[in-house]
Amino acid sequence: MKRKIKTAVAVSDDRRITRSQLSALGLGSDALFPLILQNTITSQKPKVAPETPKTGSKDRVHVIPADDENQVAKMSKFRSILSTADIETDLPIDTSPKGMRPIVLRRAVSHLEVDDKSWLSSSLIDLVISKLSRAYKNTYFMSIDFVVLSLSDENTTVAELQQATDILGRKVDYVKDKRPIVFVCNSHNIHWNLIRVLREPKPELQVFEPMGKPVNRHGGLGFRDVPRCVVRWLDMCCPLENGESWISTGVSAITNQQQFSSFDCGVACLLYAEKCGEGHTCEEINNSTCQQDLTEYRKVLQDFTRRLQNYENCLNSE
How far is the C-alpha of 120 from the C-alpha of 261, rounded, in Å? Predict the structure, then answer.
């Protein structure tokens, strides 16, 4: 009995140290969201909201359940544009702050940011999104601060909302151009999800959740799942013909848990975003993605950031 008590105390102490370390790093949930906003527009190496450690602490080795072994065996043969695209072609579309943003972000990112267990910085996420936006022109990719900076003010008018631009500064066409709109969204200040807005062939508000559809969610989505300001924006800028709200079109794009680590939700959202850019349906993405794919995509990101830094070093040495 005494040995059991000592073991329990050791576990408790370990958890308490972990939380205090996170707090010392400024990763408390109450301070995370302002930090995200600040770091997307500075050259600092930012910290973003950590993924919820629903399967254990960050240092705990994750184990993929036996039920997912078949899916691991069938992992998709996905080839990312990040592995093949030229870094040198990232020229600004224009000289405006929005057009120059990818260059600024590129110079702010270090290859040291992406190790095997790190959370992704908001700057790196935006940099990758800008790269996807250039590669997949059939999709509007919005910046990571889109929801908070462009949509969260309830006093924003329709005219102001209609001025929204994608991450490269291109204005979203709500009337003639029916391209999908894709953006990463922070969930409850602790987790990244991806949202895709489809306007044709039928309107659909898709939420890609790396942890899968919650067991207590029956049917469609609610305002716990999608920020109210996102629905308000869609209802005002591209109202549905039947007069209903966009929340009625909400679907859970990822039905089964695909993230079994406590640090891969940012990686998952970028992988989902690229697959959305390729035009895959949510069913195809749901059925072709697993934890192993997230691990492989992290390696792609590591190689991408290394090439970025090597290129910047060459420029600086000239």
Answer: 14
Say which residue the tokens 């195809």 belong to. 284
CB within 8 Å of 279: residues ≥ 6 apart: 138
Q: Please state which CATH class domain 26-317 belongs to.
A: alpha beta
Beta strands in the chain (DSSP E): 140-141, 181-187, 191-198, 204-208, 250-252
- Report DSSP letters for 257-300, one per residue: ----SSS-HHHHHHHHHHHHHTT--HHHHHHS--HHHHHHHHHH
Dump pLDDT digits (tens) for 218-241. 778 888 889 999 999 999 999 998
What is the Cα–Cα distance from 139 to 273, expressed in whole angstroms?
A: 10
Helices and strands (H, E) in the chain, number of each type: 10, 5
pLDDT higher than threshold 70 for residue 152: yes
Residue of 182, 185, 196 whose CA lies nearest to 132: 182
Would you call 254 exposed, middle or buried from its count of C-beta atoms within 10 A (0-12, 13-18, 19+)?
A: buried
User: CA 101, CA 96: separation in Å to the nearest integer?
Assistant: 8
**What global pTM score does this model have?**
0.71
Residue extents of the structural domains in the chain: 26-317
Residue 304 makes CB contacts below 8 A (sequence gap 6+) with: 82, 83, 128
Token pair belonging to 182: 């894709």
208 token code pair? 């890609």
